[in-house]
Amino acid sequence: MIQVEGLSKIYRVAEKQPGLAGTLRHFIRRRTRNVTAVQNVSFKIEPGEMVGFLGANGAGKTTTLKMLCGLIHPSAGEVQVAGHRPQRRQAEFLRRITLVMGQKQQLLWDLPPMDSLRVNAAVYGISDAVARRRINELADLLELGEELTRPVRKLSLGQRMKAELLAALLHEPEVLFLDEPTLGLDVNAQARVRQFLAEYNRRTGATVLLTSHYMADITALCPRVLLIHQGRLFHDGPLEALADQLAPEREVRLELESAVAPDAFAGLGRLEQLDGCDVRLLVPRDQLTTVVAQLLDRFPVRDLDVSDPPIEELIGGLFRQGRV
Amino acid sequence: MGRYWRTLRRFWCTAVAVQLEYQVNVLIELLAVAMSLSGSLFLLSLFYGPEQTLGGWNWAQALMVQGLYTVFDGMATTWLRPNLGAIVTHVREGTLDFVLLKPIDSQFWLSLRTLSPAGLPEIGLGLGLLGWGSHQAGVVLTLPSLCTVLVMLLAGGLILYSLWFLIAATSIWFVKTWNATEVLRALLASGRYPLNAYPPALRLLFTLVLPVAFLTTVPAQVLLGEAAAPMLLAGLGLAVLFFAAARAFWLFALRFYTSASS
Ligand SMILES: Nc1ncnc2c1ncn2[C@@H]1O[C@H](COP(=O)(O)OP(=O)(O)O)[C@@H](O)[C@H]1O
Ligand SMILES: [Mg+2]
């Protein structure tokens, strides 16, 4: 469904000093600098796959997605999506894809989502009856109801994102590009969006390429992960392999009723921090349940929290260790 | 074609719905129009005593020009400003991407996405002024002359649109520094008075470089029987030329947008 071969993007950025003088100098003698955002990336995605596109901020995820949609032209390399070259932006191609961007919205701010949906239906040439049916189906899946008839500015961020998804899926695209669709949402809304995407993929067999810098999105949805770092593709494969590689340990935070001596934690993972009643441990994934059980058993625990370290840290760690 | 037509209807229905969300704005807009029109009529009247002329145009004839100007200003308020003014915002906020991903012509979308009904009364007012001025100037309206004026109005509208769109399209390069709308407003404002009221150098500029003359002065001349077929053809030719230029420039701007920037 998606084929990418040797894809690169080099942005040309103006080197301009701030202020009026800088602008003038720039006008007279143009100085530019090349920023390589994506470098020689190749992969292939089969129809119906859900693939996570993982990488720190500035790794080149958005740039790659934009090239796959045809919004920007590659500096080098070949892209094929649904049998088309995206950069030609043929109507036939555009009908088969969609792009959702977590930080931008297409819905009209002052109007209920329903009005924007009607506009989209007309643009895609969907008849009223069909549009109504699809809106109902998708609204059911997304648990949207009267929100669709309330002005967008009066919706919560989560509701707005769900309405954005509806607007982006009205034309039943076969390929979904999702750029940080859960950005800024609270945990509940994130989970809801995730559930929806999984269900949508199951029902329609759509191909999904999803970027996120929340590990949880990727863990929940994508059996296959592409990891990109500084524009290069470093991992393409099952999530487990990456998860073990990236985060062989999980972080356990404890809040105790009373302070405990450091050596009490021997054999319970690696003690990272002990600050009175606050404890931070790194525990290997496969020992997590036993260690947590023992912790609860041995200590007066007031609060316990298990988390993945943030992706940025993980990837950073990976590179420091020279494992990729 | 049916799809474009249906889309257009949807565009304008939503546009009107947005306006109804802000009824106060419509009132304010109307008030602003009334004030600006009476202001410029007053200014115009200062130039005219009884029997006086301005660059060979008498009071009634100048009213016709003022009427035509008001029509175009209304067109700008209703159609051009809300649509073409939004292009900068689209570029700045990156929502142009959504437009470019729709299987519909992006220039069509950007040019006709919305309408502000606030300018419609202004268009009516302008037409009224034109009619009254013509009557005072002793113009005998015939079907051919009416048709001619209609064509001139359409050609003028197309010229104004194309110019405005050209300038708005440059926001792809000058994202922050550029307020195309104000420049165009100022330009259009020079069409308030008959062309002959300006010094020759400006007259040349307004005819050849920025064809404001074709928006107001020429249609009035056509009505007064002072300009005929060649002028009409020139106006139409210019309209087509400007539209083609706007179109070509937009395609060029898009190529830049997709190859260089983001
Ligand atoms: N329009 C642009 N012009 C110049 N550089 C850009 C542009 N867009 C992105 N970049 C640069 O390209 C790199 C990749 O950016 P991006 O694709 O947005 O990363 P991500 O989405 O993974 O955070 C970054 O270094 C960024 O600064
Ligand atoms: Mg990004």
Folded structure, characterized:
The complex is a heterodimer of chains A (324) and B (262). Chain A folds into 2 domains: 45-242, Rossmann fold; 248-307, Alpha-Beta Plaits. In chain A, α4 (113-123) runs parallel beside α6. Chain A is 36% helix and 29% strand. Chain A has 324 residues and is α/β, with parallel strands linked by helices. With 262 residues, chain B is mainly alpha-helical. Chain B has one domain. Chain B contains 11 helices and no strands. The two termini of chain B are 31 Å apart. The model of chain B has no long low-confidence stretch (mean pLDDT 83). The chains are: A alpha/beta (324), B mainly alpha (262). Chain A binds chain B through residues 11-12, 63, 66, 69-73, 87, 89, 91-92, 94-95, 97-99, 101, 104-106, 108, 110-111, 115-116, 118-125, 151, and chain B through 3, 6-7, 9-11, 13-14, 17-18, 21-22, 93-95, 97-98, 100-104, 109, 258-260, 262. Bound molecules: adenosine-5'-diphosphate (ADP) and magnesium ion (MG). Magnesium ion (MG) binds at residues 61-62, 179 of chain A.
Keywords for this entry:
heterodimer, A: alpha/beta, Rossmann fold, Alpha-Beta Plaits, four-stranded antiparallel β-sheet, B: mainly alpha, 11 helices, globular, binds adenosine-5'-diphosphate, binds magnesium ion
Indicate the mean pLDDT of chain A.
87
Number of strands of chain A: 13
CATH homologous superfamily label of the largest domain in chain A:
P-loop containing nucleotide triphosphate hydrolases
The computed structural class of chain B is: mainly alpha
Shape of chain A: globular
Estimate what percentage of residues of chain A fall within beta strands.
Answer: 25-35%
Distance between the termini of chain B: 31 Å
Q: What is the count of distinct domains of chain B?
A: 1
CATH topology of the largest domain in chain A: Rossmann fold
In percent, how helical is the residue content of chain A?
A: 25-40%
Question: Which structural class is indicated by helix and strand composition of chain A?
Answer: alpha/beta
Largest β-sheet summary of chain B = none
What's the rounded overall pLDDT mean of chain B? 83
CATH hierarchy: architecture of the largest domain in chain A: 3-Layer(aba) Sandwich
Fraction of residues in β-strands of chain B:
under 5%
Low-confidence spans of chain A: none
- Helices of chain B, by number, come to 11
* String of helices and strands of chain A: EHEEHEHEHHHEHEHEEHEEEHEH
Number of strands of chain B: 0
Radius of gyration of chain A: 23 Å
Radius of gyration of chain B, CA atoms, in whole angstroms: 19 Å
